Amino acid sequence: MPFFNAPSALRATHAESAIPHRAILCVAAAVATSAILSPTMVFAFLVSVGGVFIIAGNMMIVLARLRLVRDGRRAALFTLTGLAAVLSAMAVDPRARHELGLGIIAIGGIFVLERLKARAPPAPARGQSAP
């Protein structure tokens, strides 16, 4: 599995599970360090974007169900309308607008990074050198 712009020391994976343990440990250390240095800011950010991520994830599940399953469309559309109403209510409420904005920025950042990853040249196969 190729990793996008990962340093070679972090690309190493476990032989049996193919999990990049070093990369996971480095990310966990970075998150723990930032949480120790500024706990209120990190916790507030995670709480702020968490709700929007959950709603967006559920909307993607419902949209996938609409594409894959023909029966039960009425319930899926009702669910999708309800989730959209929650997002609309967040946009109207001044207290929740900040959380919605942070969540949209975070999700947009993930999509941009995924697009950049898709345009990157493929990594050389194991045992081959880069041109």
From TrEMBL:
This is Uncharacterized protein. Keywords: Membrane, Transmembrane, Transmembrane helix. It comes from the Bacteria. The chain crosses the membrane at residues 43-63, 75-92, 98-116.
